[in-house]
Amino acid sequence: MERIYMDNAATTRVTEPVMEAMQPYFCEIFGNPMSVHSFGRESRKAVENARRQVATALGAQPNEIYFTGCGTESDNWAVRGAAYANLKKGRHIITTQIEHHAILHTCEQLEKEGFEVTYLPVDEFGIVRMDALAKAIRPDTTLISVMAANNEIGTIQPIEEIAKIAKEKGILFHTDAVQAIGSIAFDVKAMGIDMLSLSGHKFHAPKGVGALYVRNGVKLQRLINGGAQERTQRAGTENLASIVGLGKAIELATANIAAHNTQLSLVRDRLIDRILTEIPYTRLNGHRTQRLPGNCNISFQFIEGESLLLSLDIKGIAASSGSACTSGSLDPSHVLLAIGLPHEIAHGSLRLSLSEENTLDQADKVVDALKEIVARLRSMSPLYDEFLQQSSAE
């Protein structure tokens, strides 16, 4: 049985070129990058090369890149660090209702510590309401944090417009770009971004390494106290091999974004078009065109998303019902509720997320499997049976 992986928003595999770049830094080049001898200098050279690779991919300067353990850590550091570094100006933060929980839970914790947070609503496609943003800004607002693209429904936000508003008001702007690297071309200077979070395992680097871009001049509270690593702001021995992998992976991911997006969009659109036309009582979640090229999020009425996932898994197909960080929760997606879906429809949602390794043939096989599974699950649903009876009576 062919196994098909369409859960790339949860994580991606480490590709061969990335693994090859990392390999020497496990056994051959192993010195502590902070050591002054030749072993350490060799490792330090690799870390700084990776820092330049990340900076080049973002249009930043190398000294504006800080390596972290993951995207969640980067998000936490950006929000908490900015909040506490700007206490003299105020305690008000603006974010959105559809952020990743790395942002939402950090903001909730800050509220317990005396900060005020405004959670902006989004429209039916998941796009931030700009009128709500304008109304939310206050004299004591210190930070606006809006994700570049949503991890569940794939909607891309107008971050340049938001950044412009923030700059005009003298407010720091942070964007969670964890899902966007490789699909959106970033030039942080031109786009007016003050801070940007990313995570390596979303674009074929290993798990356990991320980065935070911090524009020169932006002050953050130190993340971890200890040694002098990351210019004393994030102490702890560097994850050498993974940092090398991150640098190589982001270099590859951003080398030809246009071609990458064209390929992914073909497969994505095949999935969307066939599902919506061949399986009744379905709806696409997120914006039809202003979305990540590899994201397909569909709600299927009258069935549970968990049953759908398990049935797909039996057929060797990997997908998800939303964020991998909340896959164990029985609650419907906060993102789907924020765009106006009722609980019963939000519960029946499926996210198929692609990489360049997915093909049109795989898309067809997934849709064929979905048609069979959805029909079988609905045949066992009393809600679907009742719906059909009501429809025939009318």
Q: Can you tell me the overall shape?
A: globular
Structural class by helix and strand composition: alpha/beta
Q: Order of SSEs, N→C?
A: EHHHEHEHEHEHEHEEHHEEHEHHEHH
Tally of alpha and pi helices: 15
What fraction of residues sit in β-strands?
5-15%
Low-confidence stretches: none
The largest sheet, given as strand count, sense and whether it forms a barrel, is: 7 strands, mixed
Extended strand count: 12
Read across the widest sheet, the strand sequence of neighbours is 2-8-7-6-5-3-4
Euclidean distance between termini CA atoms: 44 Å
Round the Cα radius of gyration to an integer and report it.
22 Å
Mean pLDDT: 95
**Helical percent range?**
40-55%
Features:
single chain, 394 residues, alpha/beta, seven-stranded mixed beta sheet, three-stranded antiparallel beta sheet, 12 strands, 13% strand, globular
In short:
With 394 residues, the protein is α/β, with parallel strands linked by helices.
Textual characterization of the structure:
- This protein is of the alpha/beta class and 394 residues long.
- Helices cover 42% and strands 13% of the residues.
- The protein is built from 15 helices and 12 strands.
- The chain has helices spanning 16-22, 24-27, 38-58, 71-85, 101-112, 130-136, 159-168, 188-191, 240-253, 257-278, 305-314, 334-338, 343-346, 360-379, 382-393, and strands at 4-5, 65-68, 92-96, 116-120, 141-145, 172-176, 195-199, 210-214, 282-284, 295-300, 317-318, 349-353.
- The strands form 3 sheets. Strands 2-8-7-6-5-3-4 form a 7-stranded mixed β-sheet, with helices on both faces.
- α8 (188-191) links the parallel β6 (172-176) and β7 (195-199).
- α4 packs parallel to α5 (101-112).
